Sequence to fold (433 residues):
Amino acid sequence: MNTKPIPLSRVADIFAVLARWLLGAAFLYLGLNKALHPVEFLKLIRQYDIVQDHLWLNSIAAALPWFEVFCGLLLLAGVAVRGTALMLILMLVPFTVLVFRRALAIKSATAIAFCAVKFDCGCGNGEVFICSKLTENIALIILAGWLLAGPGRKFCVRYSLMPSGATNRSME
Amino acid sequence: MAIIVAVYVYPAFRGYERVGGKKVVVTRVRITHAGRQQVKDHLPEFTAPDCRHSAGHLWLEVLIVALAGAAFAFAANRISPRGLTLARNYFLVQINRPVAMPGTIAWSRDLTNSGSPVLSPVQLLTARLKEQGLQLLDGGQVKQLFQDPQFKIGNIVFVDARDEAHYHEGHIPGAYEFDPYYPEKYFTNVLPACQAARQIVVYCNGGDCDDSESAALTLRDVGIPVSELFIYGGGIPEWTTNGWPVEIGARNSGSLRRPNQ
Fold:
């Protein structure tokens, strides 16, 4: 029986599409969890003490969850994939640093092991252990970085918004 | 002239390499039993996008996503029934000292570098309330007020400052629902009762929950005398831990439950 081996590029394509959908679904889920409970999210981000002015604080709490939903939808549909992936990295990296710093502060205040620190970081999935949260965020950053590198073009409505013609090889 | 070079991995970033000063176009080939077979021979289509999709284009795309996303986000917040009012200050209480109950992690702005003398959580809470003109009640005092005949005739009023879902899960029997983050929704019921009362006990989730203070300050701001406002610091966790009755669902629903001690 003569079976053709699946080309590596095809395998990479399939995984890249799955990665795009996974990342999109994750942000859709996390964003909706926060968007449906904006007051809870507002209270949580207030604890980070990143802004003092209530207008800025309210704006972040009101917009960030829906912005994540928007990015999740773009990735699921395959619209502006690389731009969205970069946007997510730009959000994830500083937020991960903030969560890490907050966990360090709690660790030093409570004198418990770092990985035993558990709190609601405002990430959209309630109270979590810090190590699993950091692992999750790093995984999301890696996925977004991979999409930024260029794969995952299959089943895209519009892979790139730029009019460079062939980048929009939608629905290959 | 472009030279076709076989590669075995997907060329994600670049469509071409420079070899000895010459532009070498990279494409994919498939190795089969019949020999080497080019998969994509339409070079402009395969190579051009990655070449031309420059960093500038990428950042422009990020900008478009950011602007469109922001427009979507603020519009969604505006439409959502739970959306936030951007101009409103939701936090009348300024927490700048750790206030923690056993078993909770207090979030405070100076969690790690508190230089003030060590005070007990109750002392800290009492001092903070005193600054606002509010008074702290303990569980025993609250139970007495609950059993006081004045409660039955409306001279003593209980106000639950938690959100709707928690209120319906169980509240002190007869307590009014008043989520301080959406006060306008509850003023119609709560204000007349508070105006008629002489003692108003406000509570939330105990521990580091400051929603009861927010609710009390909101009531103060609409004309309820601050001398009539009391905070039950232990809140519903202490109430239920003591095995005192809670009412399920709406106010005066009659559905009472006595939690197991």
Q: What stands out?
A: The mean pLDDT of chain B is 77.
